[in-house]
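Provenance and format

Records in this collection were gathered into a single text stream. Each protein contributes a sequence line and a token line. The two records reproduced below are adjacent in the stream.
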Amino acid sequence: MRIWWGALVIALGLSLVANVVLVIGALRGHHDSMGYLEMDAPLVQRMITDYAKEVGAPTNDLMRSRFPISIYLDDRKCFTLQLKKGYIGFQPVYCFRRSDDALVYKRVRQM
């Protein structure tokens, strides 16, 4: 009977630790994968660099609270900097023409 209780206490303890780790990860807003295709990394970097200049913030500070997401339309590749959980602010949108990667739309400030 004591062995059963010991096993139950250990199982509950491990479950508690695992749940705490999951909750902390969710609160920190960890993202394990990129929200864009690897071939579009240069466009994402262009967006990040330009947006950092627009708002007057270092790119490292800016990316602490954001992560890039892509939206692919018929003739455009659009990207935004999604805010992580727990942050508030504006999310810019940049769209590039698929044929030549020219910037065709840019929204960096909320209207």
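Adjacent record:
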Amino acid sequence: MTKRLAFVACAALLPLAGCGGAAPPIAEPEPVEPEGPSKLLEPTLISAELTTEVNDDGTPAAPADTNFGPEAPAIFLVAELDGLPEDCEIEAVWTSSARSKPLYTSTATGAGRHRLVSKLIPRGNMFEIGKYRVAIWLNRAEIGGVHFSVGEKASRFTTVKELNLSAWTEVVSKRPIDSKLSFRSGIKTVNVSFVVKGAQPGATIRVMWLRGENLLIEEDLEHEGTRRYALPFEQGKAIKDGEYAVEIEVDGEVLAKRTFQVGGKTVSSVVDHAALGVAKGKAKFPKGKKTTFKASTKGLRIGIGFFSLPDNAKVKVEWVALTEDGEQLLHTSEVTLEEGGKQAPVIDWTIEGQLAPGPHKAVIILGSRKMAELPFTIE
């Protein structure tokens, strides 16, 4: 692991006095030019990832994750910000569910487009097992954050199945006849139901309701064996029109997500989940969350879980390199799915030659509509 932390413009890293114990010596950060002029008028959190290692330019050097072992030497937040006003005050606030006060707060100032890197080290030799969160604040207003856990990673056999949304006025334990993705204006309750399989006894199930990037409500349940859970989303009055999402998390790992619309446009199709892997052998859906590949890789594979597809849906994947000169389209993969509904196509890209090291992304497009992006790195 690198002994020196460098980051773009506004990131500031202070010794972790708030976590107890002496922080290891860290070299003074070297100033790096911002990645480019801001194109946004409002402060925006573009992305936020957690990792155990960073490169000299502040980019993740290890895969992003939200579950860490107690033995991790450090946990880094890498956040991309844009549209910051002049002399914007930036804070990364690290908290633990076991403590009432923040573990550590790093501060910085900046403007325009910036990369923020903040580091948390354990008290003593190891992190305490439990649930954590790091929140990002701009001028004393929270703009987003990341939940994570230590030593409580969900079993690799844990799954969330049969996630359904309905407008039923009562919370029920049976599976709804159908699952809706759009609801009329003025509705007061949206219910989610799902089945958790393979979790350890006493595992924590967290249901999070979001509007855009803003967390509205979260509720924790204790796992009581394989069964259907059902919970309502209510705000005491009519739910405002807009696009929402519900995420199901088991022991700190998000295992299922569903996007839905209240009023306005009708949500037709969504990407339920997607994953990247190496293209080899039978065309199976990639397992895990691999985001780093070798430059010598001969083929990449993407699996896409669609919900509510139309018949004869045209799916396109654009493989893009993120260079200093901007985005460079390397290849386009296309497939037509004759049967609609719930589908999980696997699409391969056979690579000729070698890919250049650096950041890349796979852009998922349905028809002419961009559905999702998966970032990855070539090393």
